[in-house]
Amino acid sequence: MSTLLSNFQWLEGSPQNTQPLVVNNGDNYLLQLTSGSSPNFFTTREAFLNVQVDYYLDLSNFDGEVELVNHALDAQNYDFVTLNSNGTAVQGRITEGESTTFGEESYSASGMLFVRTVVNGTHFRAYINKEMAVHGHGTAPEKAGSVGLRLNGTGTIIIDSISLTQLE
Question: What is the mean pLDDT of residues 37-58?
């Protein structure tokens, strides 16, 4: 819990709402988050502009939407890649609470997923297990914002790791 509190800020919900638990998977320790009916949205405390984010996630026991968020200015303004439990990947932007879609595709994957999101200027891409899942175009973000996750649904997600690469 202390890592979540020190490295992330909550824009919706709270760390307690996600019931964080460290679980052991062989030699590896993973973070388990359990979400109820209310959204939970947390982001880094640092801001980034052009960024690649690599996630290792297991969404098998989650019913709803997991938004992988870039350029978050607040809970009403951010870029996203949404993976929902019905097998749709959506890429877009929330501006003043209104959603704009840059791209939408079906995906089929289960278990531990490697998901990479890339925002570089006007190009927005997401890969699932190294295959392009969705590619869209939009206006380049005007300013740097934070990176994070928004959980909107019920169930458990497992996070193995999240890593960021600042692009030029």
Answer: 94
Let me know: does 158 contact 55? Beta carbons within 8 Å.
Answer: no
Residue 113 CA to residue 28 CA, distance in Å, equals: 16
Token duo for residue 43: 């982001």
Q: What is the pairing mode between strands 146-166 and 28-35?
A: antiparallel
Residue labelled with tokens 């992330």 = 8
pLDDT band at 25 (very low <50, low <70, confident <90, very high): confident
For the chain, give every domain's residue range.
2-166
Per residue in 94-147, pLDDT (tens digit) is 999 999 999 999 998 889 999 999 999 998 999 999 999 999 999 999 899 999
Distance CA 83, CA 98 (A): 18
Q: What is the DSSP string of 55-99?
A: EEEEEEEEEEEEEEEEEEEETTEEEEEEEETTSEEEEEEEETTEE
CB 114 within 8 A of CB 108: no
Give the whole-angstrom CA distance, residue 53 versus residue 14: 23
For residue 140, how far is the Cα from the chain centroid? 19
**Is 2-166 assigned to CATH 2.60.40.1120?**
no
